[in-house]
Amino acid sequence: MRDTGIGISREQVGCLFKAFSQVDGSTTRRQGGTGLGLAISRRLIELMGGRIGVESVPGAGSTFWFEIPFPVAEDQQRPDQPDTTLLQGVRVLIVDDNETNRLILDRQTLAWGMSAEMAADGARAWEMLGRALRDGCPFRLLLTDMMMPGMDGAELIRRVKADPGLAATRAILMTSIGRSTITDRLRESGLAHCLTKPVKRALLAEIMVRVLKELPPEGVAPGPSAAAMPRKPILGARLLLVEDNPVNQKVTLRQLQTLGYRADAVCNGMEAVVVLRTIPYDLVLMDCQMPEMDGYEATRRIRAMEERRREQLTRMEPDRPHPESRRVPVVAITAHAMSGDRERCVEAGMDDYITKPVRIEDLKDVLVRWLGAEELPPKETP
After folding, report:
1. pLDDT, tens digit (0-9, with 9 covering 90-100), for 292-323
2. pLDDT per residue as tens digits for the range 77-131
3. How far is CA 250 from CA 60, 243, 291, 311, 366, in A?
4. Contacts for 252 with CB less than 8 Å, ≥ 6 apart
5. Is residue 169 domain-shared with residue 291, that is, in the same domain?
6. CATH of residue 34
7. How far apart are CA 296 and CA 310, in angstroms?
8. Structural domain count of the chain
9. Is residue 275 in a domain?
10. Would you say 22 and 35 are in contact if contact means Cβ atoms under 8 Å apart?
């Protein structure tokens, strides 16, 4: 790969392939990157018996190369893959306190056409299950880890099966400990299946298909399919995109346009704070690493501004509700997917996050989650 960017010096080349090593490590740096990509690439290439290197000239750009020896493969028949047609449109709740595990399962279920939501612990999952039931679109599948702080997977499954309204939700448990022990403990609670970690992709698909083919408990109607779920489109939602990279900005704006949403764009956190003082946006998509002011600091200032506005309105009219003082959802856009990154977003006041490169499916999911739109808003006519 060859680029014509800023290039790097010979002294800096030596640290390029080290984990979390960057030429500029600040969150307001002008060049992006996590400091992990090249380290991971080097490790993968070396595991395959290859090598990787770079040639760079400051001010002229860099050339990255790698070599991997591959034997000539014999013709082999591709193993049978499970038919995932039955999974399309099925609502699944993924529960795991490990963020990486949640993201992996989210990507896998998305590839099968499923509609997934995620929870980091059993208590949050229990709330989401109840809300989905009240909204008339219960989850068909519950895919939960066993070992979690607070309410573990076993307790969550027992609660689900004890609730008549959730009886049609099929529960699959994932565990790293003795499978027979877990199965014995939950046999009476309605556990549909138990999988041992790490769970292979093909096996997970096969088990979910098998579980969905099973008849629901007697007298309980199966949960509605995605096609039968009530639609709640939001009209005229206005979004603010905060992104300093012009290419990323253009791509994300085009994705939002494809999904039928209006969006304005600014180039850094400082500009976002300024426009939010006067324009009531319905949702903010906030890049984390930007010059002038990064996304974390911008979000903290937005939350402080909202709090001051609420206090002012309450003092003026204490007995009247003030919808104009609502909290605007802020969704982080980050290249990070490491442990602790979500906590940093939450600490800053962000509500959710999606990782780069932004996929239109992920963008649609987060808009559905925070704007309540399960179908495309009608596009405005000129």
Report:
1. 899 999 999 999 988 888 787 777 766 655 44
2. 444 567 888 898 899 999 999 999 999 999 999 989 999 999 999 999 999 999 9
3. 26, 9, 18, 37, 19
4. 241, 243, 263, 285, 333, 358, 363
5. no
6. 3.30.565.10
7. 21
8. 3
9. yes
10. yes
